[in-house]
Amino acid sequence: MNSHGANVFEIAKNNGIKIKDIRDFSSNINPLGPSKKALDDLKDNLNLLSSYPDVDYIDLRNSISNYVNCNSENIVLGLGSTEILKDAIKFFAPKISMILSPCYSEYENELRKINSKIIEYNLEEKKDFKIDLDELIKTIREDKVDFLVFANPNNPTGTILSASEIEKILKETSAKILVDETYIEFTDMSIYSSTKLIDTYKNLAVVRGTSKFFALPGIRLGYGLSSDENFLNYFKNKEVLWQVNSVAEICGKVMFSDEKYITEVFNFITSRRNYIFSEISKIKNLKAYESFGNFILIKILRGPKAGKLREKLLEKDLVIRDCKSFNNLDENYFRICLLKDDDNKILLKNLKEIYRSE
């Protein structure tokens, strides 16, 4: 396993399993697959692969602009959200930064590269890993934090802040904020997405990708949003010609406007998340935590630890995320994402057998 989920190619090779038979509950990718409308458009325009993309990506930027309700001039493009996150952290170059604990490890990795002093805001189990907003703001002020980076919803806890709560941080502190909205589409974006704040607050940047919700990790398309001219110029100056490939451009121009698909995925994930949370809560020796992502963090109260559980499930071609590599978690925690109904039922059946239902 790499630090961000399972390497299914390695698992298949080492365990003599066909990749198509692996049920990967570790990678958090929408199980319904990409927008059919986008894929059909790609098939109809394969001839465009023989031409260079639009160097300015005007149609792609407009599609994203309409989708996130943000000025198209405030959009930067990149090879996935991780590239933009790394470059954004280099741009902000904070002296004192804050991350949530636990969280996506790349924030800490990139901050250490620039020798930023890192303060961890611990998400406590006794509070169900939820953020105490007033406490967070107080800590930012007292420790003179000049940069806050976090995922919303947070991975792996599913913790979330509303846009109004993020706006409160912007108003009551001087910290610059980088919000990773990798999983935001699995929530009610009218409440939780902070993209609507971009055109108003220059000390806010938002990063999104297309790997998780749109199920297209292979096209490596990410985008960032900011109204800070210096931020935008920084990305413009480091751009290379045709940074985004034609496949990403073609799919992006269509999928962001595929409202039927977006609604279908949101409704599917919401209903299955509620169902699986309810079923896990019935298992005597497990505790599930409320999540706003397409994944659920689970604590083992009694029984095999997460590493052993992963081995047991791998024998059934099921892959989960052992969370012991996350700061502030240990071998008692694992994370699962939501797959299709038959796969979810198989996982639940195995968990009930191992940890015994009430």
Automatic annotation (TrEMBL):
Aminotransferase class I/classII large domain: residues covered: 21-350
GO molecular function, one term: threonine-phosphate decarboxylase activity
Cited InterPro entries: Aminotransferase_I/II_large (IPR004839), NHTrfase_class1_PyrdxlP-BS (IPR004838), PyrdxlP-dep_Trfase (IPR015424), PyrdxlP-dep_Trfase_major (IPR015421), PyrdxlP-dep_Trfase_small (IPR015422)
Similarity comment: family membership: Belongs to the class-I pyridoxal-phosphate-dependent aminotransferase family.
A Pfam cross-reference name: Aminotran_1_2
Enzyme class: transferase
Enzyme Commission number(s) of this protein: 2.6.1.-
Protein name: Aminotransferase
Stretches that traverse the bilayer: none
Cofactor: pyridoxal 5'-phosphate
Key words of the record: Aminotransferase, Lyase, Pyridoxal phosphate, Transferase
